[in-house]
Amino acid sequence: MSLVINNNPMAYNTTRNLQTHYSNLADSTRKLSSGLRIDRAADDAAGLAIRELMRSDVTALHQGTRNANDAISLIQTADGALQTIDEKLIRMKELAEQAATGTYDSVQRTIIDSEYQQMASEITRISNATDFNGIKLLDGTLSSDKHDGSKMTSTGKLLVHFGAANDSAEDYYYIKINSTTASSLGLGNSAGKVAQTEGGFSISTQEAAQKSLVAVRNAIVSKDNIRADLGSLQNRLEATVSNLTIQAENLQASESRISDIDVAKEMTQFIRNQILANAATSMLGQANQLPNMALGLIR
């Protein structure tokens, strides 16, 4: 190679190598400081796309877990109210049994029937008052087989969404709760004509009290069916929560393998780039001395 003073090819070459090493060193520093192998799209475009989809699914699954837990709380609220209703129904059957015997006169049966009607009114009040986050649970609001979520307020049976997509077989199911008001159970003087003839309307006469024993029993069975459905749904939701937690955990582990940096490997690369950058810096200083050698021939 000729000695020249106008250009310095060795310095240019060393500068280019130095810039490359410093760029690699900057990349290693950025990745080590963030803990991410993919910190920008240029690092791995395909990996970035996969990672972001995984992250969105993990976030949705975590929210789905909260949704399922909220539904469990809703069911527990309804079941607690039904337990109180159960106590009222048991008392109503006790009163019907009392009024069915012949040792009481009409005045006494009227007094007994007064408490019977109060129990029925309390059942209706509990059913109408039981709500979760403003959603009525036991008044028949959730009793419809048809769900409509197209409006601001959903109607019909309650939809519990927990999956990351919108597949009816995998991502959501419904909670349906029939009405437990006294009239819907066929009890009390608000129950209608059927209760007057078949029992449950009143226990003011011996015959009516006898029929009411059967009516109250049927009401208890109806209420127990609702509680059984809610109990099975709660068990199902608890299993769903467990599965969602495992699913989110495994998906997050997969995302980590794609996105997170291997610190040991990247630290090795960082030290290599640091050594190369230091060597290039030293050699650039040497290369810059070459024109001085040519000047020495001129003097």
Descriptive overview:
The protein has 299 residues and is mainly α. Helices cover 67% and strands 4% of the residues. It has seven helices and four strands, in the order αααββββαααα. It has helices at 9-34, 45-100, 106-129, 193-198, 206-259, 263-287, 290-298; strands spanning 131-132, 135-136, 158-161, 172-175. It has a two-stranded antiparallel ribbon. Helix 2 packs antiparallel against helix 3 and helix 2 runs antiparallel to helix 5. The protein is rod-shaped. The model has no long low-confidence stretch (mean pLDDT 90).
Instruction: Identify the strand order in the major beta sheet.
Output: 1-2
The biggest beta sheet reads: 2 strands, antiparallel
Give unreliable regions as ranges: none
Q: How would you describe the shape?
A: rod-shaped
Strand-pairing-aware structural class: mainly alpha
The whole-number mean of residue pLDDT values reads 90
Order of secondary-structure elements: HHHEEEEHHHH
Q: Count every beta strand, where a strand is a DSSP E run of 2 or more residues.
A: 4
Helical fraction equals: 55-70%
| Structural Rg | 39 Å
Q: Which percent band covers the strand fraction?
A: under 5%
- How far apart the termini lie comes to 21 Å
Helix count, DSSP H or I runs of 4 or more residues: 7
